[in-house]
Specification:
Length: 262
């Protein structure tokens, strides 16, 4: 199935991706679909502790996503616009183009962040600390570029977990507090609250505050049960059908998919 899909998505586009908004979206879709394939391959091999193969696949996924982001950024520059703040772009309605391209950048950025998260977890299992520090810096740079509080939130959580494993409890607490300040409040970010509580519980254990950790773990179990309840999942579908926050609901499902396989 993978080989057959690969034949289709490796077909070259006849139209220059830097001169057509429609073709640019198709180009980005191609890169993101291939990236998803390699991320899935990575997670599959990680379940069997084939870390080197998993890292290679995840790195390929990240490379594809970077190529997509680079193509997007190059499109702006070649059309005389250096940032997404410009009010005009390509051969379509300026406001429509700006919204579409922001969504493209947002989608690619979040996939890059998720891919980096997969790699961080793999390198943690392998004990490759230098690579982890590099990836944390890359996610932080991406968050600054896209002005995404969500990406920055997860970067601080990842950094907190890394420093805790590294034995630097003070730095881990510092990163955790930064993440807590950025915690999204919307209903569709319920998983983020769970991840924050998990980090808080891990910090409590590291500081030998076991009663606090036990209380937090009980709350985590209750929150996870709520997230998996039919009522909650139905409410997310209602949000998706209503539009407006469709992207947030999609991100929620994406994180559920990733967390269950790492």
């Amino acid at each position: 199935m993978y080989n057959e899909a690969k034949k289709i998505w490796q077909l070259d586009f006849c139209e220059d991706v830097r001169t057509s908004l429609t073709t640019l979206k198709a180009y980005l879709t191609q890169k993101m679909l291939f990236a998803d394939i390699y991320s899935t391959i990575s997670m599959y091999h990680s379940t069997f502790d084939k870390l080197d193969i998993a890292i290679e696949a995840a790195t390929t996924s990240l490379r594809l996503l970077h190529a997509g982001m680079k193509g997007l950024e190059k499109s702006f520059k070649e059309n005389g616009h250096n940032t997404l703040e410009d009010e005009s772009f390509i051969e379509t309605d300026p406001k429509t183009a700006k919204v579409v391209l922001r969504e493209c950048q947002w989608a690619v950025a979040h996939k890059i962040s998720s891919c980096c998260k997969i790699l961080v977890n793999l390198y943690i299992r392998k004990g490759s600390w230098v690579e982890i520090e590099y990836l944390i810096g890359e996610i932080r740079s991406l968050a600054d570029k896209t002005r995404s509080k969500s990406i920055l939130f997860h970067d601080h959580l990842i950094a907190s977990d890394f420093y805790l494993r590294y034995g630097d409890n003070e730095k881990a607490s510092e990163e955790f507090n930064l993440a807590r300040q950025l915690q999204p409040k919307e209903k569709t970010y319920g998983l983020d609250m769970v991840l924050l509580k998990i980090s808080e519980a891990n910090l409590a254990i590291a500081k030998e505050r076991y009663e606090e950790a036990t209380t937090l773990n009980e709350g985590i179990e209750a929150s996870i049960s709520n997230l998996l309840s039919i009522a909650y999942l139905t409410s997310l579908e209602d949000i998706t059908n209503a539009g407006g926050t469709n992207t947030k609901a999609q991100h929620y499902r994406e994180y559920i998919f990733i967390e269950n396989r790492i």
